[in-house]
UniProtKB/TrEMBL annotation:
Membrane topology, from the record: Multi-pass membrane protein
Signal peptide limits: none
Name of the protein this chain belongs to: Cytochrome D ubiquinol oxidase subunit I
GO MF terms held by the record: electron transfer activity; heme binding; metal ion binding; oxidoreductase activity, acting on diphenols and related substances as donors, oxygen as acceptor
Keywords assigned: Cell membrane, Electron transport, Heme, Iron, Membrane, Metal-binding, Transmembrane, Transmembrane helix, Transport
PANTHER family cross-referenced by the UniProt entry: CYTOCHROME BD MENAQUINOL OXIDASE SUBUNIT I-RELATED, CYTOCHROME D UBIQUINOL OXIDASE
Subcellular localization, as worded in the UniProt entry: Cell inner membrane; Cell membrane
GO BP term, example: aerobic electron transport chain
Stretch list, region Disordered: 445-484
Protein family (similarity comment): Belongs to the cytochrome ubiquinol oxidase subunit 1 family.
Amino acid sequence: MLEHFDALLLARIQFAFTVSFHFFFPAFSIGLASYLAVLEGLWLKTGKQVYLDLFKYWLKIFAIAFAMGVVSGIVMSYQFGTNWSVFSDVAGPVIGPLMAYEVLTAFFLEAGFLGVMLFGMNKVGRKLHYTATLMVAFGTFVSAFWILSVNSWMQTPVGHIIGENGQFLPGGSWWDIVFNPSFPYRLVHTVMAAYLTTAFVVGGVGAWHLLKERKDGSANPHARKMFSMAMWMAAIVTPVQIFAGDLHGLNTLEHQPAKVMAMEGHFDSHPEGAPLILFGIPDSEEKTVKYAIEIPKASSLILKHDLNAPMDGLDTIPDDEEPPVGMVFWSFRIMVGIGFAMLGIGLWSLYGRARKRLYDMPWLHRAAVLMAPSGFAAVLAGWITTEVGRQPYVIYGLLRTADAASPLDAPAVAASLLAFIIVYFTVFGIGVWYILRLMSKTPHSGEPDAMEGDSGPIRSAGITPGPTQNPGHDEPLPANKEDV
């Protein structure tokens, strides 16, 4: 089997596999951290027990997702040294500090306040605990900020010079590197994708419990509340996300035209308006999209706001600089299709809300359950579009992927890839199973804290003191408890 794969392809598969696994967890935890901050803020403002119960319900899930995100992300750093040592050497002076800033700011911020957030509900004042929750939510955003800055610089490299030894060196202001041309668009698009991913998971879980409520005839205010909040998010944020995605596409057309050509399936140039190809089968050998279903001149209208605007095709790009059209073409359509499906769910929920039947629409609830994992599929499809569309470069236009890999033999890379596959599916598969198990439990009044028996440290010897103040850790904090 190894005879059919060279070391470069195996290294690319390995990084794609690990980053795909990793991406699922930040895409969920970024949005979930903000959702937890909203829930705790609403509890502090209104005093309603339902918000505190939901906060505790989702906090346990967040802790597991966050932990798996950290563990799965550490592995990728090592691959820079093992499989991509040339890239690390030549690009390290630029990307190294940015990734270090992510650790020194976001990771330390999250790690410092996560313990207070998880176990401090009955040990610190309400204001300090809410501050910890806000800091964790802010830390997830800061982490996304630095990582997306690195990725965006690789997509649109600016602000650097090439040293005598071939290294990329900062060439002036770091602000030019950090806020490179594609970064603001990618940051907004990715963070909102994370919020929508979380919203549809929360909405799917809420819909699942609403369907159970309908079956057994009970009433669950917790499921109703989370479903309502998720549907508001879907209805409001999805149109904004579609608009942001359009702006991101226009920016990509300006700086990475070959990627857009692959996304659109434009093998040929169109001097009098390019069609929008809805579906088809791209054939890179024959340079055509077979069985294409298209709307005449619509692509020119979308991308240049002019029906007759000329559009260049891949016939203007050397063959050895073309990205893999088939993969980019279909991943882009999967992402867009899921986006419009999310919009449909959001509009459907508005219709039900206007008729005061949001909690009495079983087909909407079934659709929401089916759409629960849709955000993960969309962010993965978007990542494939972005990264595969950049090929054959790892630093766009400057460093080819083939020139960035370590001088390794295929069996060495294959062995580590096989190990990753076994370990990832085992460890993270169990973690995902446990998360789904937690989600299957019905949220209820008096939801327990993240850790049972958190009245004091666990002792391995000696006398364990009995409960002193506030023994019922399931109950909300007393109203007269002083803030620390």
